[in-house]
Design goal:
Radius of gyration: 18 Å
CATH class of the largest domain: Alpha Beta
CATH architecture of the largest domain: 2-Layer Sandwich
Strand content: 35-45%
Oligomer: single chain
Shape: elongated
Distance between the termini: 53 Å
Number of helices: 4
Largest sheet: 5 strands, antiparallel
CATH superfamily of the largest domain: RimP-like superfamily, N-terminal
Strand order of the largest sheet: 7-6-5-4-8
Helix content: 25-40%
Order of helices and strands: HEEHHEHEEEEE
Length: about 160
């Protein structure tokens, strides 16, 4: 099975049990590492994940992948190392839930027409977000966004 097909199958197999735990499957990466492979799975939820969430998700992913009936033996016989993490701050904002989870944070977005918009997420819905850009609200449709990420802020003064 090709890596893209394996990744798609992993998403199919892992999404339901993680959702049952209240976690969203954000990223599945499968990369070669010598004679082994590294399977990286990133999970998230509203309010962020804790170390306990990651530990429980690791147990569940491992349980599913070790059960050939539950997983359809998607990983095959080649050995792999499992890493379960949270997505991190450099994750691109690609889904409405990513914007929801980052309300109040500063984001930088590039639009398909080449504009760069930098502002604080103040509202959101399934079609877009409202950003506070230098004190003025600006609506940004998700369909117009080419890339978007949270900007790290050090020494932010709460208002």
């Amino acid at each position: 099975m090709a890596t893209d097909q394996t990744r798609e199958r992993l998403v199919e197999v892992l999404t339901p049990p993680l959702l049952a735990m209240g976690l969203d499957l954000e990223v599945v990466e499968l990369t070669p590492a010598g004679r082994r492979r590294v399977l990286r799975v990133a999970v998230d939820k509203d309010g962020g994940v804790t170390m306990d969430d990651v530990a429980e998700a690791t147990k569940e992913v491992s349980r599913v992948l070790d059960d050939p009936v539950a997983s359809g033996d998607v990983m095959g016989e080649q050995p792999y190392t499992l890493e379960v993490t949270s997505p991190g701050t450099d994750r691109p904002l690609t889904l409405p839930r990513h914007w929801r989870r980052n309300e109040g944070r500063l984001v930088k977005a590039k639009t398909h027409d080449g504009r760069t918009v930098k502002g604080r997420v103040v509202a959101h819905d399934d079609q877009g977000a409202v950003l506070d850009v230098d004190g003025a609200e600006s609506r940004l449709a998700f369909a117009d966004v080419a890339t978007a990420k949270v900007e790290l802020e050090f020494n932010r003064k709460e208002s």
